Amino acid sequence: MSLRHRRKGEVADLAENEVVDNETPKSRRVGVNPIAKVRIALVSVFVLAIVVITLHSLWNTGKGPTRMAMRSDIPSTRGSTIVVGGGLAGLTAAVTALEHGCRSVTIIEKNAFLGGNSAKATSGMNSVNTNESDSPDRFIADTLKAGHEINDENLVQMVAFQSAGALRWLRETLKLDMKDSTRLGGHSFRRTWRFSPMPDGRPQPVGWTIMKTLMDALKSDEYKDRLNIKLNSAVKGFLGSEENGVLGVLSESSGEMEEIRADAVVLASGGYCAGGDILLKYAGENAKFPTTNGPWATGDGITFGMEFGAAARDLEHVQVHPTSFVNKSDPFATTNFLAPESLRGTGGILVNGEGRRFVNELAPRDVVTNAILKNGFSLGTLLAEAKNDQGAEDRKGAWLVLSSEMVDSFGAASAGFYASKGLFSRFGSVHEAVKELEELSLEGLEQTIEEYVFSWKSGNPDTFGKDYYPSAGTLKDTAEYWIALITPALHYSMGGLRISPSAEILRKNGESGSSFSAIPGLFGAGEVTGGMHGANRLAGNSLLECVVMGRIAGERASSVSLKQLPPLVINQWTESRVRSMDSNNYHGYQTTYLELPSALHEVDAPAGQRFEIRSQKHPSIVVPNLAAGVHGVIALLIPKRYPGIYPGAKVDILLVEDSHSGASEATVNGPSVTIVASEDKAFDVLQMLRRSAENLRAVFFFLLEDAVVPDHSLLPDAQFSTIRVDSIAQLLAHLSNRGPDEEVIVTVNADTRRVLEGKIERENVFYVEYPEKKACGFG
């Protein structure tokens, strides 16, 4: 009898006895008055109702959505958090930490103002476009392709799957109406979102509008009393130790050093594309380019993070954006205005001095940049009379050409701003343009426009592989041409400190650095981190990463103060979030990592312990855990077809009490054992062997076709051998080759056991039966 059936029977017997006990005295009463009879009847009905409710509750335990309460010991008020950096990742983390009840949040910014490079962002923020055939998987594929497949795929998955939630947070919580979308370089769909112009035609710059809204939110009555902002303060290092965790920061302001302590620290100090030691040491060959960054982007946080013991990656990879505006009066300036990718996303084309296109303008950024460096013309030759006071190397340039209709799609007011700075020139015709612009061929430009419009009309990819031609037809017949001189410029640093999908900053385990673990209490988000973008970033992914990982960092930082609570409570649901899934497929199952209430929690349940999990709107199932050995997460083996499991998904988990109660035990005396297993039952028998087989050194598995490969960490001192068998005949043949005295444990479902009991003819065979586990219940 299974545990569930046994409990049901016991309760049924108890209920029956209670009814008999209630009825017995009733049958002995003679001549009882009517009022007493009514009272007795009411009491009997009441008791019977209690019994029925109890029976129903116990019967439903382990069936469908388990009727257990959510745990109630998680406090609404949490500890203190320091955020280093006042850009989008930093302010997002600060707002999120306050949303989750932090009693104190301190933002430390080395500049005299908040905003960072985020405030300068112009093209937009990516999010999966549900209005088209877009999907997280397609978004992931585009990001990995652009990043040359060296991205941290777990980070990419988290950001892609949570992109819709990030956009929803901006729209619903911050009331930001980002409803215009465009398709930018390297993307297969229109998924980069920005603001429409204001009713009076004025632009709403993406980065600045988001940052201003966040600043206003932090000043609101809801948060202002719990927030402290320290400007003109430069963090010089962390307090604490790599092993024991971060306890705060050491900050300098006006020559004075100050120790600021907190439960957790979020590092969001930005990248290093404005210069500094990191750029020169790891990507010095790119220091010759101008930059679109503010002078503050010097990689300070990466430097003192590495000094503290944090691991870094991809520091040699910086993005040279293909288009920054060249100011003809200062063509060799060290800092340029960015010519936003959305200028090409709305239809702009690039031509060389002969007026010829040489690249798909919507290819990934590194492809476009390399094409300009190869096919562009010399700025030194074009602008020979210009001063080069900086001693800069010669630079390559190209012409960016748009129709007035393309400019309207981009935002006429925004383009007008660039024109007011002398960065755009406007012409009534191609003939007028080439008269004024040197190094631009009339014949070549005219032919290019003819060919481009023809490719658009044909509906086929052109010579450079371009198959998306926004507003192409307007190039041939437009009221006005807008033309700008552009050159590549340093724009973004892909490298940075390693983080987990839970935004924990990681350190190496040992000298080899083949594995990593979290530095307790230290989190990171934004350009200070590495891994999301690989070797090259897609347009629009920077703001998205800041919002997604900034929110995760703020939430997990706020969780550090919950470390004194138990990670899980028996018979109470604990809210969790899917952190990542192992790409390995254990015959229909996958290892899924779920966050615990505190980033510092650790589950001490033995591997193989059963847990119940439920995703939103789906029945719960019972699954085994694995030996994760990672703070802040638990690893469960979940069927791949169970719905609602994806990076960032909210789920509930329940520790199943006494999950091995009622199981029959097999005694293993020898140094080796053979196990025949189906489904995920190998985990249960290995759990039993951990308790009873101290001398075991070798385990031979014969796995039926639906069996899950067992986790070696359950018996780390034993050697595992695994053979998958497809038929009973094949199993019997393998068993005949095992030693006659070797013990065989069979742990299969009831139907298979009935078949095997009549087929296996040998001594020392033990049939191990475990309590019935809940069926998946999802079709």
SSE topology sketch:
Elements: H1 3-28, H2 34-60, E1 78-84, H3 88-99, E2 102-108, E3 125-126, H4 136-146, H5 153-161, H6 163-173, E4 180-182, E5 192-194, H7 206-218, E6 227-230, E7 234-241, E8 245-253, E9 256-261, E10 264-267, H8 277-283, H9 300-308, E11 312-313, E12 318-325, H10 342-345, E13 349-351, H11 365-375, E14 377-378, H12 379-382, E15 396-403, H13 404-410, H14 412-420, E16 425-427, H15 430-436, H16 442-458, E17 481-493, E18 496-498, E19 504-508, E20 516-524, E21 529-530, H17 541-559, E22 574-581, E23 589-595, E24 610-615, E25 621-626, E26 633-639, E27 650-655, E28 672-677, H18 682-692, E29 698-704, E30 719-725, H19 728-736, E31 743-747, H20 750-757, E32 765-767
Parallel strand pairs: 1-2, 1-10, 2-6, 10-20, 18-21, 28-29, 28-31, 29-30, 31-32
Antiparallel strand pairs: 3-5, 4-5, 7-8, 8-9, 11-18, 12-17, 13-15, 14-15, 15-17, 16-17, 19-20, 22-23, 22-27, 23-26, 24-25, 24-27, 25-26
Helix pairs in contact: 1-2, 3-7, 3-17, 4-5, 13-14
